[in-house]
Design goal:
This protein has about 150 residues and is mainly alpha-helical. About 70% of the residues lie in helices and about 5% in strands. The protein is built from 5 helices and 2 strands. The protein has a two-stranded antiparallel ribbon with strand order 1-2.
Length: about 150
């Protein structure tokens, strides 16, 4: 997975430069740059608008006492889409636009859900320090686990 990420990190600027050259030759310099600026503005608006609605969905899901896994995943994907739209480049814009399409987000969520398992844990509310009971009923604490009254 790390090698794939490194390869993508190296290829992404090359893909973006290539697309700038191809699109610039096809439509000209100023329309190409205008498209990049327009995509950045759209990305900022997406982060602002969609992000706030997804945060409200998170709050309502947590308010019902449910694990907001889907809402968190949607919020992360929309945030990533907005970030990709803010970055200059047409390839990152394409990926960002694809992440804004709900069926594509659902497919990515289903793929991630099949590979990731969430484990919920509960605590008993006991002491937050490790303790060692000695046979005579005393509790042995390390120096960083106690404080004077």
């Amino acid at each position: 997975m790390g090698r794939l990420f490194l390869l993508l990190l190296l290829l992404l600027p090359l893909i973006e430069i290539g697309l700038f050259v191809v699109i610039g030759n096809a439509i000209g310099l100023w329309p190409t740059l205008g498209g990049v600026v327009l995509a950045a503005i759209v990305g900022a608006l997406v982060i602002r608008g969609q992000g706030l609605s997804l945060l409200n969905d998170l709050r309502s899901t947590m308010g019902r006492g449910q694990l907001p896994a889907r809402a968190i995943a949607d919020a992360m994907m929309v945030g990533l889409a907005g970030l990709l739209l803010l970055l200059p480049g047409y390839f990152s814009d394409l990926i960002g636009i694809l992440l804004l399409i709900p069926p594509i987000r659902s497919a990515i969520y289903a793929l991630l859900r099949s590979r990731v398992s969430v484990v919920t844990t509960t605590t008993t509310g006991g002491p937050a320090f490790s303790q060692e009971r000695v046979e005579d009923g005393t509790i042995d604490l390390d120096s960083d686990e106690w404080r004077p009254r």
